[in-house]
């Protein structure tokens, strides 16, 4: 499985591609950051993020894209930029028919470090160890993108089994004849 992880941001959008399957050693295929100038017009910045992500999709041909789920922060302006960059990543993947998964920061931290409260240094250290790198990717946005891809590779098989079980249960429920509730249908 090849996954493009995207740590969305307008100034620095981390991107990282990891290949492998759960239970086996993983391989980093590529890592980087799509940058936009903070003083540029919002529209131009979003186009630059789109062009950067499209280049990564063209070059690495991922089977899945894992994007960090935007969560509420204290700084609304930061949240808006992150959400806009996230939407661009989702759009780029969806336009190509590539499945997109959203993972919360605490999910990613827990998957990679064992603690949903890990700090950036701990995430970077574990990404370095898991991918057998010489040093943590810089900046932290790049390491976070790799962590997203790792999280998806490790969690996707369990999530797929859950979705299949729910679909099977739903389908079986639809085929069962519906019996009226004992309190309904009785003459008053």
Brief sketch in words of this structure:
This protein has 188 residues and is an alpha/beta fold. The chain has helices at residues 42-60, 76-95, 105-113, 120-130, 140-175; strands at 2-7, 12-19, 27-35, 64-68, 100-103.
Task: Report what the structure shows.
- By secondary structure, the chain is α/β, with parallel strands linked by helices.
- It is 51% helix and 17% strand.
- It has five helices and five strands, in the order βββαβαβααα.
- The protein has helices at residues 42-60, 76-95, 105-113, 120-130, 140-175, and strands at 2-7, 12-19, 27-35, 64-68, 100-103.
- A five-stranded mixed beta sheet has the order 3-2-1-4-5.
- Strand 4 (64-68), helix 2 and strand 5 form a beta-alpha-beta unit.
- The longest helix has 36 residues, at 140-175.
- The protein is globular, with a radius of gyration of 20 Å.
- The model has no long low-confidence stretch (mean pLDDT 90).
């Amino acid at each position: 499985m090849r996954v493009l992880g995207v740590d969305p941001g307008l100034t620095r959008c981390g991107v990282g591609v990891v290949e492998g399957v759960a239970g086996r050693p993983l391989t980093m295929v590529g890592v980087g950051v799509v940058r936009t100038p903070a003083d540029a017009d919002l529209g131009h910045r979003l186009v630059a993020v789109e062009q950067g992500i499209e280049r990564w999709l063209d070059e690495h041909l991922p089977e899945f894209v894992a994007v960090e789920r935007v969560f509420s922060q204290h700084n609304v302006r930061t949240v808006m930029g992150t959400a806009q960059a996230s939407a661009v990543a989702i759009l780029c993947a969806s336009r190509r028919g590539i499945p997109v998964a959203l993972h919360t920061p605490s999910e990613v931290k827990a998957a990679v470090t064992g603690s949903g409260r890990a700090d950036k240094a701990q995430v970077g250290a574990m990404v370095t160890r898991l991918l057998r790198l010489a040093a943590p990717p810089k900046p932290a946005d790049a390491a976070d993108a790799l962590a997203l891809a790792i999280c998806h590779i490790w969690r996707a098989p369990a999530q797929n089994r859950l979705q299949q079980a729910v679909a099977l249960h739903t389908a079986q429920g639809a085929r069962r004849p519906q019996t009226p509730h004992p309190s309904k249908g009785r003459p008053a």
